[in-house]
Amino acid sequence: MLMRSILFIPGIRPNMIAKAPGIPADLFCLDLEDSVPPAEKATARQIVATHLDTLDVGRRGLAVRVNALTTGLLDEDLEAVVHPRLQAISLPKVESAEQVREVDARLALLEQARGLPPGQIKLLCWIEMAIAVINVYSIASACPRVAAVSFGAEDFAADLEVARTREGLEISYPRAVIAVAARAAGVAAIDTPEPDFKDLENLEVDARRARNLGYQGKFCIHPSQVEIVNRVFTPAEAEIEYARRVVAAYEEAERQGIGAVALDGKMIDAPVVLRARQLLQRAASIAALAG
Ligand code: COA
Ligand code: MG
Asked: Is 25 touching ligand 1 by the criterion CB < 6 Å?
């Protein structure tokens, strides 16, 4: 599943949902949680269920963010949205691996009841509570259904009772540890959405920071953010070209029985060539999936 950009669309806004086909996000996440007021939850479920039937986003995917396990709203949410065209449930305010397995079991029952392939519906777990940051590796590896962990900076700052700043010192630890835990668990790491959708320069700087920490994608809240996020999380031509030269230089050195060689005044050895090959692999799979 390609997840460079995941665009949130409030489940209560059918006019916005209808715009999805024209927006180049890899995945669309229809929201039933914080963008839907309590009194509108039932209406939003109906709107989202209808669009799962009718919305045509081609090869891109559809996900739904449900309400947290502890809210008492989750069962009705899942009941409404488990559907052949649903690729993922985005699960907010996860606290522990036990909670993830609980949701996994409920999804398994619904998949079975509706004749869907077991495990079709992936889980994207939000790491946005202090306790989740502590438990992130066990959450990310709780069950095979977990495809990604997502960092939620706004709720994390609220849980810590700290202010959000543009420099982001308050989120540097969770952001880094989530990427490392995701990698160790073999799942993707998706970065927090940027609420300031007018400042696209800042978005690009921030998204690049996340990619450099090991994130594979970033949530978006406005269509204007999607192209920038896709670009940041796609290896650039210059990076691909350099990676090809690294691989070629290393293979030539290997033929000569040498394990380290210089390229443009820098040492190329095994980890450097490994990174170059990973980048080429990632570029190829993005090209294949993005079409
Ligand atoms: N998905 C699809 N379309 C969207 C969109 C979204 N997330 N956000 C905005 N649009 C559309 C608008 O409907 C508008 O369309 P129009 O020109 O045909 O009227 C166009 O893009 C431009 O929108 P704009 O006027 O700049 O913003 P807005 O004031 O309508 O909306 C927000 C701003 C923040 C309310 C809106 O972007 C939004 O609801 N984002 C998602 C919020 C969310 O899901 N939060 C929960 C997760 S953190
Ligand atoms: Mg949140």
From this structure: no
Ligand 1 test: best mutation among 13, 90, 222, 229, most atoms within 8 Å of CB? Answer: 222
Predicted TM-score (pTM) of this structure:
0.97
Residues 198-237: tens digit of each pLDDT: 999 999 999 999 999 999 999 999 999 999 999 999 999 9
- Give buried/exposed letters for 190-209 (b at 16+ CB in 10 A, else e): bbbbbeeeeeeeebbebbee
Q: Is the distance from the beta carbon of residue 34 to the nearest atom of ligand 1 less than 6 Å?
A: yes
Q: Where are the domains of the chain?
A: 5-232, 237-290
Question: Which CATH superfamily does the domain covering 5-232 fall into?
Answer: Phosphoenolpyruvate-binding domains (3.20.20.60)
For residues 10 and 19, the answer to whether their CB atoms sit within 8 Å is no
**DSSP SS3 for 218:** strand
Q: CA-to-CA distance for 19 and 24, rounded, in angstroms?
A: 10
- Cα four-point dihedral sign 119, 122, 17, 27: negative
Residue length, the chain?
A: 291
Report phi then psi at 63, rounded to 5: -130, 160
